[in-house]
Prior knowledge:
The structure is a homotetramer.
Chain A: E1 4-10, H1 25-41, E2 48-49, E3 53-56, E4 59-66, E5 75-85, E6 89-98, E7 105-115, E8 117-120, E9 126-128, H2 133-136
Amino acid sequence: MACEFKFTRQVEFSDTDMAGIMHFSNFFRFMETTEHAFFRSLGFSIHTTGSDETLGWPRVHADCNFKHPLRFEDVVEISLLVREKSEKGIVYTFIFRKLNDHPPKEVARGTLGVVCVKRDKADGKMTGVPIPRAIADKIEVAPCEI
Amino acid sequence: MACEFKFTRQVEFSDTDMAGIMHFSNFFRFMETTEHAFFRSLGFSIHTTGSDETLGWPRVHADCNFKHPLRFEDVVEISLLVREKSEKGIVYTFIFRKLNDHPPKEVARGTLGVVCVKRDKADGKMTGVPIPRAIADKIEVAPCEI
Amino acid sequence: MACEFKFTRQVEFSDTDMAGIMHFSNFFRFMETTEHAFFRSLGFSIHTTGSDETLGWPRVHADCNFKHPLRFEDVVEISLLVREKSEKGIVYTFIFRKLNDHPPKEVARGTLGVVCVKRDKADGKMTGVPIPRAIADKIEVAPCEI
Amino acid sequence: MACEFKFTRQVEFSDTDMAGIMHFSNFFRFMETTEHAFFRSLGFSIHTTGSDETLGWPRVHADCNFKHPLRFEDVVEISLLVREKSEKGIVYTFIFRKLNDHPPKEVARGTLGVVCVKRDKADGKMTGVPIPRAIADKIEVAPCEI
Lengths: 146, 146, 146, 146
């Protein structure tokens, strides 16, 4: 079972803003990208399409505390930790470390709370459902503080 | 029948990059937003959903020539002109004018070529279709150079 | 003195994702855009450039709780409320209401915590500074719950 | 001397739109990211900061022809080819191939025309300058059609 995952990424020009730093909204995109890579590492896609329905994971909560900026071409390692797992949802913590500082420096820390839904293909409506057993069985709450 | 349309927008902080100017990819977002406002002005939505199919307008061509940069809080007027209309597609020209310069200055000029498709809800596949009559009847090629 | 501000915006195609709803990261962009419109309503720009330094407002905290999705062409009113004002920072609450539901429905609620900094033009380093008097004098903590 | 470069990337959830495909504006972001990786492969950064000035490469032209859509988690290889090199600018062609099709399929092809500028730190004004010799010497026009 998996409770931690690391993903590395380089800050791109289009991630920056006129203050010369990565725009804060992109930390949330990076969290999500890490979550999806975590799912792939378990053998799943975050977006599963059946004949009439699609399984999805809308966000119900997101937060981030920003300690230091990231700049163009910085290399950032994002650690995902599973904080909570319930019947219908998961809470993840994400820790951002700038790897091109020596030693690597924590620059931000955030949270995503997600729920599992079925999305009706005809009208797009989303209904909360239990996390599929095959997925739930592979995800474990991280045992300790980091 | 309509062949020209104007839309005004203000450059936002998240539209800028570390060079202090609007990131060039956002000119394409602004063109599309203007196209969609044009459709609304005709009484349509660009995205029409039926029971089994969705009508969509994927882009087959996009270009832009950039003459002057746009900066944070600049107010830009985007003029849409219908350049070509065929059975299955439309070509638009877009002219960007910075209104907070006196006189307003053309800063960029671009093109979108779009085709009308039906998107199957079950598998997402897109198939080219004739532009619905109700829409085609309301759109006219702009008569002259601007 | 101002403690509340409303800004209205329409969800664009490029704001959506393959789940058919506005991507959650864009709620944060919308909060920031509302903050900047609030500043303009007070007669200021969020981004003030002097000869050697630039005044900026980096985010130190951001959060959002998502109750209902927003979809393409939804019209959303974003209410900004000043929650806290200290010597060097401001905390805002943002309430998102979907105006094309009758009655308008609250779809999300979020927070931005920002600090005032001077950014050195030569090396880009940011240093926390007191909020300029002219700005601080115009901003007031909202008196009551909403 | 270098005239060709390949960069591989996976389509992310936030790159998609409600049509279920990568939003067309992101093809332009991917071109730019490839250009910057090309520069790093030569030992340079696209963004060079001196004491009073910054060297930059604003885009004067961008275009793209879209043949097939890209979807979430598609793996795309972007080939950069130097098409033209003049005293002050470079024109690149980019070819997008979807690697998870067998055989890989060309899905899009685009162009960026860029010019070298010095950006004054005090007022942000950009002035065209010759490409620095150290950079120009390492870049060669691709010899043949691909």
